[in-house]
Amino acid sequence: MAELKLFRTWSSRFALRVVWALNLKGIQYDTIFEDLSNKSSLLLQYNPIYKKVPVLVHNGKPLVESLLILEYIDETWKQTPLLPEDPSERATARFWAKFGDDKVLLSVWNVFIKQGKDQEEAIVTAQENLGFVERQLTGKKFFNGETIGFVDLAFGWLANLLSVWEEICGVTLIDHEKFPLLSEWIQNFAGAPIIKESWPPRDKLITKNQALLEVYTSKEAPK
Amino acid sequence: MAKNDVKVLGAWPSPYVMRPRIALNIKSVNYEFLEETFGSKSELLLQSNPVHKKIPVLIHGDKPICESMIIVEYIDEVWTSGPSILPSDPYDRAIQRFWAAYVDEKWFAAMRGLRSAQGEERKAFLDQVTEGLALLEEAFGKCSKGKAFFGGDRIGLLDIAFGSFLGWLKVTEKVNGVKLLDEAKTPGLVKWAERFCADAAVKSVMPETEKLLEFSKVLAAKMKGAPPPKN
């Protein structure tokens, strides 16, 4: 019997991708919840370079970095494929997932930690990036088409964490007028079976992110 | 396949541009190399990579593919009759991808920092670069399993990802008066680097160190003369 363990935290948006992928494919696994302020020796042993979650351990062999873990899962368990078969569609999916992590995430985060004129500029950048993402949904229910796939999981954080940040800061980044397709995707994704069962508790997310944003905004404040 | 069915938009000094070219060479695929002029971006580049406006771009038929390592995986998946660039085992593939991402996100980021840093900051970046090379030496031992390359008998994904930086590594050694790849500390990588640069798929696209050194001076001068960033 294959042994599968997932190291995660209750809130990690990256670990959630792996939870979704395993659940969508109906794969059994054990969960180990980590406290990142007190990392277990096992976590440090399995991920010595980055010391982060998620870590997936399959038959004793560790895998790190959420998008790489998703590719591994897709290659090892063929049911409910996450990536398309066609090579150019696969390249496109990988491109948008990377764009999400490299550009979108940071640009959205900047909106919520900055203030005044800096925040206004951050909003412009974030909405430019989101504009590219919006256009990828043209004629599609999910980024993957009719069913949830790799890019949907990669952008999953937009379907819950974003609204937490928006609520705390009173800034609406994805409004229905400017981003009708993304707004609809958020509804479809957030409410989809398997996906909706795994969301971290919203009130806990709000408390945690409030504290996090306070730390960052006090750093950014002029001395 | 007709040569003009496959195009690579790029520039000779770019390590990222080398990657798809090496991959196409491994697969014996003929392609047209469209060289961008330094300091400006062609219409074709802006059209085919509107998001990042960066090289390399692979144009296959009418489809643009962007991001160097994504292009390499695409090449491997399309041209299946040539030698494989990625291993077949999913875990081995994950390891190759992990280290390729590490090279780009951590190690070369430190190399870039080293280029412009001064004083204490410079020492910090140099330490990061050296530590990274120690990790890669260890990874080489594990991945190669005694064979010539990270990919085994033949050049693979990680060889391409890391090897494409060897030209700039040599330039950094000269400019900083340091030895980064060292027979004492990184003996495996020293020999690997020689084999990589001598490989038929690499030789024709690896720039000469002297040319790269000259170019790096032009680049440094341009960056100094560049207008200050908008606040």
Return the average pLDDT of chain A rounded to an integer: 95
Strand content of chain B: 5-15%
- How many helices of chain A? The count is 9
Question: Roughly what is the average pLDDT of chain B, rounded to an integer?
Answer: 94
Strand order of the largest sheet of chain B: 2-1-3-4
Strand content of chain A is 5-15%
For the largest beta-sheet of chain A, the strand count, sense and barrel status come to: 4 strands, mixed
Care to count the β-strands of chain B?
A: 4
Amino- and carboxy-terminal Cα gap of chain B: 49 Å
Protein name (chain A): glutathione transferase
Enzyme class (chain A): transferase
Domain GST N-terminal (chain A): 2-81
Catalytic activity (chain A): RX + glutathione = an S-substituted glutathione + a halide anion + H(+)
Structure overview:
The complex is a heterodimer of chains A (223) and B (231). By secondary structure, chain A is α+β, with helices and mostly antiparallel strands. Helices cover 54% and strands 8% of the residues of chain A. Chain A has a 4-stranded mixed β-sheet with strand order 2-1-3-4, with helices on one face. In chain A, helix 1 (13-24) links the parallel strand 1 (4-8) and strand 2. In chain A, helix 1 (13-24) runs parallel beside helix 3, helix 4 runs antiparallel to helix 5 (116-135) and helix 7 (161-169) packs across helix 9 (202-220). The longest helix of chain A has 27 residues, at 87-113. Chain A is globular and about 50 Å long. Chain B is α+β, with helices and mostly antiparallel strands and 231 residues long. The longest helix of chain B is centred in the middle third of the chain and has 27 residues, at 90-116. The mean pLDDT of chain B is 94. Chain B contains 10 helices and 4 strands. In chain B, a hairpin with a 2-residue loop joins strand 3 (57-60) and strand 4 (63-66). Chain B has helices at 15-26, 43-48, 68-78, 90-116, 119-144, 157-163, 166-176, 187-198, 200-203, 209-225; strands at residues 6-10, 32-35, 57-60, 63-66. A 4-stranded mixed β-sheet of chain B has the order 2-1-3-4, covered by helices on one side. The chains are: A alpha+beta (223), B alpha+beta (231). Chain B: Residues 4-83 form the GST N-terminal domain. Chain B: It catalyses: RX + glutathione = an S-substituted glutathione + a halide anion + H(+).
